[in-house]
Amino acid sequence: MFSRILTPAYRLFKTSATQPSTMKLVESAISENSVTIFSKTTCPFCSATKSLFSDKFPKVPVKVLELDLLEDGSAIQSYLAQKTGQNTVPNVFINSRHIGGNDSTQAAYQSGRLSSMLKV
């Protein structure tokens, strides 16, 4: 009985040290690409975000990292949560600036802010 109570609390409060290689991979992907999307192949919100870029901005290069296909995908997602406060995917960055998830990205497109950020 105590394990069911303590295990979630332990997970909540334990500190996990992010590997330098994970941090470097994330930071490099963000800084070296004008658009970086951290995604999962089975996520419908991720698909909507990727479709937005491919349909509306086909000439803009987009770096997509599919976390469910990467060995350290869960570590990357944990690091992104620490970095941005967002636990979910997609996690979108434009010109090294965190935009947010699908809703934020779609709203930025609708308002015209996305076009101005991409300078198209």
Automatic annotation (TrEMBL):
A Gene Ontology BP annotation from the UniProt entry: cellular response to oxidative stress
SUPFAM superfamilies: Thioredoxin-like (SSF52833)
Keyword Electron transport included in the entry's annotation: yes
Protein name per its UniProtKB record: glutathione peroxidase
Reaction equations catalysed: 1-chloro-2,4-dinitrobenzene + glutathione = 2,4-dinitrophenyl-S-glutathione + chloride + H(+); 2 glutathione + H2O2 = glutathione disulfide + 2 H2O
Species per Swiss-Prot/TrEMBL record: Lentinula guzmanii
Presence of the UniProt keyword Metal-binding in the record: no
GO molecular function, one term: glutathione disulfide oxidoreductase activity
Domain Glutaredoxin per the UniProt entry, residue ranges: 35-99
Enzyme class label: oxidoreductase
Cited Gene3D superfamilies: Glutaredoxin
Keywords in alphabetical order: Disulfide bond, Electron transport, Redox-active center, Transport
Pfam families: Glutaredoxin
GO cellular component terms, A-Z: cytoplasm
InterPro entries: GLR_AS (IPR011767), Glutaredoxin (IPR002109), Glutaredoxin_euk/vir (IPR011899), Glutaredoxin_subgr (IPR014025), Thioredoxin-like_sf (IPR036249)
Domain of life: Eukaryota
Leader sequence residues: none
Coiled-coil regions listed: none
Residue ranges of the TM segments: none
